[in-house]
């Protein structure tokens, strides 16, 4: 392996890192970390550090690192057939098998899978399919998409617009038009602390109704949402939220896109978040957990109702004009098949539910009565600890203080990776599903030390 200093120089000189303060990186003020190897829930870097990855990369290495079953499937596929395209009806054993495996596991009423590469492009596909659908139905005015503040749907032009976090839009001339935002179902951050959960849900529903009335249902095509908010703060919805939203959408002929890039394939302790929360989506976005990040692959699962209209559209207009070179890439598909088999064989979906409950319990035991811990929440292996300046009044720290980032750094110095979520002092935990109880205890114990060091 090359010397660390050589790699660090090349890194600073050549590599444009995503989501990075470019100037600080160039000045050498940001930590450079060259990751070399990984196994189970741990990664190692070239400086010899071994770190417990409490965020599974970017909540994507769901089955854990170093699984030979997936590595072997990828190698075998590369030797046998590294690539062929999927245009005009071409397929491979891996892509065809994977489409069946996905639909066997998907919520009811789903018809077909369109394969892409990552969550962003899958959501771009979904928006195009929604527009196409309404054009074929003779409703060319019905095109706007409603998303939620704090939603995250990717970094593309449209998906960056749907994202409800300013950091991903600033100076990029986003959002584009045809995008509307409504309330985030973030009960912990409700304005009126006396408001019941049921009243809060009713308020979310009322603001959605107001938005639809203001814009006109005949201009609104779809609503997109993550079953549980991810990047916007790792927030499971309050009880009854999704059925209540679903009722409004059905009444106004508005499609539902469930963005299951994070929640799909087990992270909440159910195969899909849609089933977990009683959503009935028309489109489902999948990525990360589909291959556990062993290869880039995403998908748009299209429901029966839309599929019929898409077929009709091609009868009227010819082949659908949407495709990527790497749609259904055989290596990604082979990784997906091996990954889903492994999830079944090791019963990792129910494991995620059980270990997730254990982790939440351990976090509560370690930090539940700390004066600056406002909320410990989670569903399955999607957990968050939200820090507050004052627990009783629920006042938040001045964002400029960077309290969440400081705790994150203090935890990292103890060998545990969490994610300081981009908005608010929120430490996120979304480890691989193979997390052991002792690793969960380690996360909780070291987080408690890090919180005490900073606060
Ligand atoms: N949708 C959700 C809910 C996500 O969390 C992400 C990424 O974190 C995306 C879409 C975008 O996926 P990608 O980064 O693979 O483009």
From TrEMBL:
One Gene Ontology MF term: pyridoxal phosphate binding
Keywords: Aminotransferase, Pyridoxal phosphate, Transferase
Cofactor(s) in the UniProt record: pyridoxal 5'-phosphate
Keyword Transferase (UniProt): yes
Family that this chain belongs to: Belongs to the class-III pyridoxal-phosphate-dependent aminotransferase family.
Full protein name: Aspartate aminotransferase family protein
């Amino acid at each position: 392996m090359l010397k660390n200093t050589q790699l660090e120089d090349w890194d600073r000189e050549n590599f444009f890192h995503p989501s990075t303060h470019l100037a600080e990186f160039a000045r050498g003020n940001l930590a450079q970390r060259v990751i070399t190897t990984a196994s189970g829930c741990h990664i190692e870097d070239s400086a010899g550090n071994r770190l417990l990855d409490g965020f599974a990369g970017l909540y994507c290495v769901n089955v854990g690192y170093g699984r030979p079953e997936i590595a072997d499937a990828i190698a075998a596929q590369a030797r046998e057939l590294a690539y062929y395209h999927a245009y005009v009806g071409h397929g491979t054993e891996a892509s065809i098998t994977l489409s069946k495996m996905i639909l066997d596991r998907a919520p009811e009423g789903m018809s077909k899978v369109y394969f892409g590469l990552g969550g962003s492009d899958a959501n771009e596909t979904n928006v195009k399919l929604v527009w196409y659908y309404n054009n074929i139905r003779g409703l060319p005015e019905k095109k706007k998409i409603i998303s939620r503040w704090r939603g995250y749907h990717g970094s593309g032009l449209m998906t960056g617009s749907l994202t409800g976090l300013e950091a991903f839009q600033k100076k990029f001339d986003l959002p584009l038009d045809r995008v509307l935002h409504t309330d985030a179902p973030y009960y912990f951050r409700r304005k009126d602390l006396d408001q019941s959960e049921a009243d809060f849900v009713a308020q979310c529903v009322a603001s959605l109704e107001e938005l639809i009335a203001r814009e006109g249902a005949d201009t609104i095509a779809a609503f997109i949402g993550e079953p549980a908010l991810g990047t916007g703060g790792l927030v499971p919805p309050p009880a009854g939220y999704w059925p209540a939203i679903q009722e409004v959408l059905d009444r106004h002929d508005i499609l539902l896109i469930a963005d299951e890039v994070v929640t799909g394939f087990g992270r909440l302790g159910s195969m899909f978040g849609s089933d977990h929360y009683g959503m009935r989506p028309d489109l489902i976005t999948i990525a990360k957990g589909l291959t556990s990040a062993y290869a880039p692959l995403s998908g748009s699962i299209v429901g029966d109702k839309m599929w019929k209209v898409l077929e009709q559209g091609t009868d009227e207009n010819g082949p659908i004009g949407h495709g990527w070179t790497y749609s259904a890439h055989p290596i990604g598909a082979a990784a997906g098949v091996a990954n889903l088999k492994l999830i079944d064989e090791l019963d990792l979906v129910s494991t995620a539910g059980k270990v997730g409950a254990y982790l939440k319990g351990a976090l509560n035991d370690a930090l539940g009565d700390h004066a600056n811990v406002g909320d410990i929440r989670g569903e399955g292996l999607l957990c968050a600890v939200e820090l507050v300046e004052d627990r009783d009044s629920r006042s938040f720290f001045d964002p400029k203080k960077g309290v969440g980032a400081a705790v994150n750094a203090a935890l990292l110095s103890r060998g545990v990776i969490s994610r300081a979520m981009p908005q608010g002092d929120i430490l996120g935990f979304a480890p691989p599903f193979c997390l052991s109880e002792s690793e969960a205890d380690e996360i909780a114990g070291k987080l408690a030390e890090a919180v005490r060091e900073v606060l």
